[in-house]
Write a structure and sequence with these properties.
single chain, seven-stranded mixed sheet, binds pyridoxal-5'-phosphate, three-stranded antiparallel sheet, 2 domains, 12 helices, 40% helix, Aspartate Aminotransferase, domain 2
Length: 383
């Protein structure tokens, strides 16, 4: 008898993972590949975190923790908001999660009903779309592009013609790396408050900015769900740790849901992460490398014919419009991998409709690798 498989799992695959696998297969065969596909720092966790983890292994029992996280980490997150933004958040609103990915699942379940309509920018981070779809929540794609700095605005939301229940924004964004300025964030906050739209602000790329620092949505009021992570600026992807600052009306639901869904975030990671806020020197050195990579690629990529680029205000991505070269970015990225030895991600991962005209380059690796990648791309495209 054929058993039923729920339609819920029938979401788009994460294409970047397929690219990563293809790149690894080529490496196993002996090829040299420059990795510009995956969105993770080329660095490990800062030394202070490693030491704190070792100490925790030696001295702590490392069982389950309180499901919103150990008090020391929640306090450290509270202090981080005071230091980084001058904003005070009460501890009861801070929940430590298994990466920001865990925070999406928790907050989407707590905030939205099946059938609700939640908007996101397209291109945007694919997991928003796929988690919402798996939860039977309708995704309303807000088409954005160079003329809107790849970001949504109240005007675009009004123009979508839907009565929205939610909106997810990310500034800096993935894949475009563009940011919404404080006035734009405030306008979105105000529009959502006026229209009864639950606003979720993914602030995972805060700390990695090149022009202006990123402002938190908390600045404009207490009603947005703030999601952040130790994965990017703090360089702790595999430790699977993130956090939320919840509006008070969602605290109870998340307190009930979190232990059922995850029990708690990884214990050793939580103890180690307390130390990350004292590792500024190392984290700033990582940022310096991203800055160097950004400058190099903005200078070199146009020489390879990639000259229509989003503004790269923050994060570590360059989103290139390749429509003058190809109409099929997936095939183009495949050829780039095989012929130039450079792994990149086709835009279709982020934008099912127009992504075939875009490629995302991630520049989170070492500057020497990025320089080599640029050399290969120029050679590939000009010879
Ligand atoms: C915009 C955005 N949000 C969230 C995540 C998920 O990160 P994590 O679950 O490691 O916190 C990513 C990862 O690339 C991302 O780009």
């Amino acid at each position: 008898m054929v058993l039923k498989v729920a339609k819920r799992g029938d979401v788009a695959p994460f294409i970047v993972m397929d690219v990563l696998k293809a790149a690894h297969d080529l490496e196993v065969e002996g090829a040299s590949i420059m990795h510009m596909e995956i969105g993770q720092p080329g660095t490990g966790a800062p030394q202070g975190v490693i030491e704190a983890a070792k100490k925790a292994l030696d001295t702590k029992q490392l069982g389950y923790t309180e499901s919103f996280g150990i008090p020391e980490l929640r306090s450290a997150i509270r202090d981080h908001y005071v230091k980084a933004y001058g904003v005070y958040v009460p501890l009861e609103r801070i929940a430590v999660t298994t990466g920001s990915s865990g925070a999406f699942i928790l907050s989407f379940i707590a905030a939205f009903e099946a059938g609700d309509k939640v908007a996101m920018a397209s291109p945007g981070y694919p997991a928003y779309r796929n988690i919402l779809t798996a939860l039977d929540i309708e995704v309303v794609e807000i088409p954005v592009g160079p003329d809107t700095n790849f970001q949504p605005s109240p005007e675009l939301l009004a123009a979508c013609g839907e009565q929205l229940d939610g909106l997810i924004v990310a500034s800096p964004s993935n894949p475009a790396g563009t940011m919404i300025d404080p006035a734009g964030l405030e306008a979105l906050y105000g529009y959502c408050a006026e229209q009864g739209i639950r606003l979720i602000s993914d602030e995972i790329y805060h700390g990695i900015t090149y022009v202006d620092p990123a402002e938190t949505m908390l600045r404009f009021g207490d009603d947005a769900v703030i999601i952040n992570s130790f994965s990017k600026y703090f360089s702790m992807t595999g430790w699977r740790l993130g956090w939320m600052v919840l509006p008070l009306d969602l605290v109870g639901a998340c307190e009930r849901l979190a232990p059922n869904l995850f029990i708690s975030a990884p214990s050793v990671s939580q103890h180690a992460a307390v130390a990350v806020f004292d590792c500024e020197d190392e984290l700033q050195e990582n940022l310096r490398k991203y800055k160097e990579n950004r400058e190099l690629l903005l200078r070199e990529l146009p020489k390879a014919g990639f000259d229509k680029l989003a503004s790269v205000d923050g994060g570590f991505y360059i989103y290139a419009d390749v429509s003058e070269i190809t109409n099929d970015s997936a095939a183009f990225c495949e050829a780039m991998l095989k012929e130039a030895g450079v792994a990149s991600t086709p835009g279709v991962d982020f934008d099912p409709k127009n992504g075939h005209r875009f490629v995302r380059f991630s520049f989170a690796r070492d500057p020497a690798d990025m320089a080599e990648a640029a050399r290969r791309l120029i050679k590939w495209r000009t010879s």
